[in-house]
Amino acid sequence: MRNKVTFILMFFFILNLSGIGKTYATENKVSIPPFFVNMASLYNIPVDVLYALAIMESNTKLQNGEYAPWPYTMNVNYKGMRFASYEDLVYQSRLLIKQGKTSFDVGFFQVNWKWNGHRSESIEALANPYENARVAAEIMLEEYAKVGSWAKAAGRYHNPANRNGHADRYASDYAKILNVIRKNMRY
After folding, report:
1. How many domains does the chain have?
2. If I label 178, which of 6, 9, 68, 113 is the partner at 20 to 30 A Cα–Cα?
3. What's the pLDDT tens digit per position in 44-61?
4. Phi-psi region for residue 110, left (φ > 0), alpha (ψ -120 to 50) or beta?
5. Which domain holds residue 93?
């Protein structure tokens, strides 16, 4: 996780120096895609909070060399996988469920099917970027109501029990990403 955060922070730093990259930075500003702006508005969660969570959970290097959260992402046993389409993500999810495996994360926000699948009507629904954002926002808002800090809420989103301090470390890394976005946000 530390290497990932260091990489993301260095990426933002380089973008700010060079002014390159349309996904995150234009004219030394972090550019938040309209999808995240719309979802944040719809679910009444700060846009920077939601976007930072997507970056933490599914940041991906695209074919054009830019980086962005990727909607068709899955994580199984700490192994991240990226799929070309919604259909591919759903197909792989169904295979896992058929094999009796339920603990895997899907989508922009890596919502865990085992622990949060009850929040959605099906794996097909949860794999949909819009539903994935709804469930993620719901969880973040619940955790924020308990702890009063977006960084701590993100930590609990990632690891509610804070086993071995994982939530605390995640919260620290998330806070760094969130601060970069807040300093440079443009949408």
Report:
1. 1
2. 113
3. 999 999 999 999 999 999
4. left
5. 34-184
